[in-house]
């Protein structure tokens, strides 16, 4: 399988991965792109392949390699690319990004990674350079940053915030999800503790059956650890079924 990216070379040249080897873009014509082994300079490997400039399909298979195959290096480069992509495009906590990027890596590749704290520090640095909205790290933060209260379509996402305190609860749902809740007749719930930021106790998700598919329709993060607080806030969830998406 071919994958092409612009990550992995110091000059940000397109890089092609195929059958465990990497190729750097050498030149192109109106019909083809010419690639050469990424170890052309270090190990004088002269393997080359050609791809169609429109479809990226291989039009000339790679010639024989003379370089040493190192699948671990390829794994590490893919880890770096996934790390940067997730840091820039998701709201995941740094620790969760590391966990997701490590999935599927070999033990040999994992052993060559920097220590976890250094990787998380790198994620925060990437986000600071890209003017990324910082996720609050204190359960007593006064308010949620406005950029995190809206969806990418600029519709309301934060529906309820009980305010600072040990029993704080945040409820999230998009306009579309509220519409599904209003029309659904069957609901399912799912709670998890593993993926919750350290500042909260549990992530609770309400799923609704929509067009014969189970769809996540509402979620909240909680700090409650008492039945009375849970009972009080479960009534807020029930009230959302009568809330107009435009309110």
UniProtKB/TrEMBL annotation:
Transmembrane segments: none annotated. Keywords: Metal-binding, Zinc, Zinc-finger. One of its GO terms (molecular function) is zinc ion binding. Residues 9-59 form the FLYWCH-type domain. This is FLYWCH-type domain-containing protein. Pfam families: FLYWCH.
